[in-house]
């Protein structure tokens, strides 16, 4: 009789444990799917932003005109006082082209060139997501830990040698993103605020970004003053013959 009773209790406990695990996994998957569904999807984006750029202590107030064709290319024109263009960039998943009109030089490199300034974790999709105010796709993963905190949702874990933490608001938009690889001296911190309605899309009107890769540090404060989605766009880019490759 004692033997039979023990077996019965064991079976019941095991069934409850399996049910609890299944329920936990299901809730986590539903939350991750909800986060993915809450991110902004688009074909094209064009935006104008006032920005403060600080590269290794050299600070400048500029205007950024940004155009994106989703998953294909990012075009950025940087203008200074009086609307004079000082630089232009065209970034694709494979390459980066940059012209510096002040010094009459250009850069033509594989995409990996960006990793010198934005860290080894940066991909084309990372840049596209940060510009739009989306979560970095690789972090919204079944490998992430998910918990509720202060009315929002927190994702945390490890990704490609980085420790990360992403804080989402009640609308499941990313308010803060932090990645750190202390051994490699790399950190990325992003704060999105003042979310606004842009047609039927939602984006942050303000983005603060801090990237450090060893002795290289970039700070960006960006404030959108104009934005539009899914309109026909062109991406003009040509290197003048007199320009020389940057050293």
TrEMBL record:
InterPro entries documented for this protein: DUF4292
Descriptive protein name: DUF4292 domain-containing protein
Species assigned in the record: Mucilaginibacter gotjawali
